[in-house]
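About this split. The held-out portion is used to measure sequence recovery: a designer receives only the structure tokens and must propose an amino acid at every position. Recovery is the fraction of positions where the proposal matches the reference. Here is one held-out target exactly as it appears in the evaluation file.
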């Protein structure tokens, strides 16, 4: 691509962004998983879950996530099957809701 093509592409993307037409994945999703570990003091959980396509996670995985409100961790324990809501922002992924299934 030449310089003119890059400028046109930049202009097109710049015009699309305010309209919400950029190519991006969702910023939140609800998923099911199993709690592997809870770090109440650190406000983190380790969750084994299947694919979450809305957040561009095409494969099953086990990940550590920050928890928005660590108080919700009192209602669950390691080994529980859970439904959780996961948000994605500029600082990464954060669990905003979690409940035992």
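Reference sequence for scoring:
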């Amino acid at each position: 691509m030449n310089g003119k093509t890059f400028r046109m592409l930049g202009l097109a993307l710049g015009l699309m962004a305010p309209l919400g037409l950029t190519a991006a994945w969702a910023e939140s999703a609800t998923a099911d998983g199993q709690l592997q570990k809870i770090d109440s003091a650190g406000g983190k959980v380790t969750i084994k879950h299947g694919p979450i396509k809305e957040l561009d996670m095409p494969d099953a995985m086990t990940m550590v996530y920050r928890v928005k409100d660590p108080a919700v961790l009192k209602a669950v324990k390691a080994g529980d099957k859970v439904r959780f809501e996961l948000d994605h922002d500029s600082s990464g992924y954060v669990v905003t809701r979690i409940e035992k299934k």
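Annotator remark: The first strand starts at residue 28 and ends at 39.
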